[in-house]
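# step 3/5: fold
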Amino acid sequence: MKNMQVSLSSSSLSELERELLHYADSVERASKQAAIKLAGIAQEEARANAKVDTGALASSIAVKETQTGADVVCSAPYAAFVEFGTGIGTPSTERADARAMAEAGYVVNASGRGSEGWVYPKDGGFRFTHGQSGAGFMAKGAEEARVEVIEVVRGELQS
């Protein structure tokens, strides 16, 4: 950011106003560009941590630009189960994780068999699984982006 000086004259104050408005516009552009770059970092890290069988999960991770920045999305229909897990002790202790699994029809420790695991709807009935642990591939992407925020934003504001 450049230093701005002003004297107490109408022309000097008008020039300062023009410079501040220009700077505000550049901050808005830089913010969006920083969000897009950070989404790219998150996408790359999430793809690197997605379980690889066919590569379908990793290739379904994409950056979607928005009016104000970008979102990172995973469109594989089973993505939530890989992210949060379906087994004993998973999802994590985070309430949001448990809520996401519950919205998908999973119920923790509801087997009625005296064993821990997940009951899930299938073919008009219910199945029981001890499941798998969550991979947290999207969470790892978000964490990597958080680490880079200061550098990315600084770089965009300086350019």
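# step 4/5: annotate
The mean pLDDT is 81.
# step 5/5: archive (pending)
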